[in-house]
Specification:
With 436 residues, the protein is of the alpha/beta class. The chain folds into 2 domains: 260 residues, Glycosidases (TIM Barrel, Alpha-Beta Barrel); 99 residues, Immunoglobulin-like. The chain is 25% helix and 29% strand. The strands form 4 sheets. Strands 1-2-4-5-6-7-8-12 form an 8-stranded parallel β-barrel. Strands 15, 17, 18, 20 and 21 form a 5-stranded antiparallel sheet that branches. A 4-stranded antiparallel sheet has the order 13-14-19-16, with no helix packed on it. Helix 6 links the parallel strand 5 and strand 6. Helix 5 packs across helix 6 and helix 9 packs parallel to helix 10. The protein is elongated. It starts with a helix and ends in a 6-residue tail after the last strand.
């Protein structure tokens, strides 16, 4: 009899625990290890053969793709949609369809237009949701909306309606900003999704000079991810592979961002500054979160997939290194070449995996006042003066694997023509302004 009572008590306790686990799965499984996966955003509005090749090339290295499907706007009266039309067929990994939502969308939510907004988004998501019948694995939906922190409550109401309207077992997610971690209604928003993507990359405040050094501060990224982990909801961390090119005035103040394909030259007195994340720091973060996983962290999402012709993004070899947690190779060569008797040219080449945003520098030196004249060209600058027998050459890093380029010439005195290595150059180093 006592044995039967003991068996009954054990079964009852098991049923209670199982029920509690069903009601509060995030609480009961918050310490369960989750597989560390890496996905990547594909953010092209127009797909061509280069995009398809990039996806084919990366399918063996990543666990999923988050594809931009279009951009949603609101003009104060009607919703607008600019389609991207990604191709889901042929992708063998997890697919998430992403709608980029413009900031003015918050006005529609504030005017209690959430039901109409849900219906509008669903009408543009339907073609991708029906892709389940086309063999696409686990297509999900993600909303990328940089909602004002003050409007997070309205956003939560909208996401509740959208998630409820999606087909059963459609993964639903959002991108989030670190500032939202401070909002008391943020947990309400997270309750409406299956997971979220924490974006730890941004330009910051362009009006503050100190914010223009890097797109991702590794110390802040670790802090943000730690706080996200304590929310008790599955999440990814989004890391950047892209860069911005900024125009600064004579006082170093931000004026504008140059578009991706812009060929605009800076106006007189304006300077150009490239801002990116330090790939070595990104590799360290990758290893940190992979080898010491945070509770509830599903892994990383990289913004964005390298595509041939993408001028503001890491090339594929550098991105492939980051996926493994390795720092991409940054290396350069400088060479003095005689072009004619008495005339030497300084040639630079990028022999690494990528072109860092920070400038590169090398020193050219000679002896006995051997140089009559010199000029630094091709967007590079020289610091020095005749009579000093040295000049510091500084400028933008050449593109990876691009042909060597001439950045300066040096005319030597006739009596020095036969002197071996009369003009010499040092090794090239990166001038690190980022402080990372």
């Amino acid at each position: 009899m006592k044995l039967l009572q003991l068996i009954f008590c054990v079964l009852l306790a098991g049923l209670c625990l199982a029920g509690a686990g069903a009601l509060f799965p995030r609480l009961f499984h918050r310490h369960a290890p989750l597989p560390f996966t890496q996905q990547v955003y594909v953010w092209q509005m127009h797909w061509d053969d280069a995009v398809r090749r990039a996806i084919d090339q990366s399918q063996a290295q990543v666990d999923g793709f988050m594809l931009l499907a279009g951009e949603v706007g609101y003009d104060g009266k009607d919703f607008t949609f600019l389609p991207a039309i990604p191709e889901l067929r042929g992708i063998s990994k997890t697919v998430t369809v992403v709608l980029r939502v413009r900031s003015e969308f918050s006005k529609a939510l504030a005017q209690h237009h959430s039901p109409a907004a849900v219906a509008f988004l669903l009408s543009h998501l339907e073609p991708y949701l029906s892709a389940r019948q086309e063999g696409v694995q686990h297509p999900g939906v993600q909303i990328d909306f940089d909602c004002p922190t003050s409007a997070v409550s309205d956003y939560a109401e909208f996401m509740k309606g959208l998630h409820a309207a999606l087909p059963d077992r459609t993964p639903c997610s959002i991108t989030t900003l670190p500032d939202w971690l401070n909002s008391p209604v943020f947990p309400t928003l997270l309750a409406q999704v299956d997971y979220f993507v924490l974006q730890v990359h941004s330009l910051g405040n362009p009006s503050v000079a100190d914010s223009l050094h890097t797109l991702c501060d590794p110390k802040k990224a670790l802090q943000y991810a730690g706080r996200a982990s304590r929310m008790g909801v599955p999440f990814y961390v989004a890391l950047p592979t892209y860069s911005y090119r900024l125009l600064l005035d004579q006082q170093g103040r931000f004026r504008s961002i140059l578009a991706e394909q812009s060929t605009q030259s800076p106006a007189p007195g304006m300077t150009v500054k490239d801002v990116s994340a330090d790939p070595a720091a990104l590799a360290t973060l990758t290893r940190q979160w992979r080898d010491h996983p945070l509770d509830h962290c599903l892994g990383l999402v990289w913004f964005r997939l390298p595509v041939e012709g993408d001028r503001r993004n890491l090339p594929w070899p550098a991105f492939a290194s980051l996926l493994k947690g390795d720092a991409p190779n940054a290396s350069f060569t400088a060479e003095m070449r005689p072009s004619e008797p008495g005339l030497y040219e300084l040639w630079l080449a990028n022999t690494g995996d990528y072109a860092p945003a920070d400038p590169i520098s090398c020193e050219v030196r000679w002896h006995n006042d051997a140089v009559l004249a010199y000029d630094i060209i091709g967007g590079y600058k020289g610091r020095g003066a005749l009579g000093q027998d040295t000049v510091q050459v500084e400028g933008p890093a050449p593109e990876a694997k691009a042909p060597p380029k001439v950045v300066g010439w040096f005319r030597v005195r006739p009596e020095q023509n036969e002197v071996k290595e009369v003009v010499q150059c040092s090794a090239v180093h990166i001038v690190n302004f980022s402080g990372t």
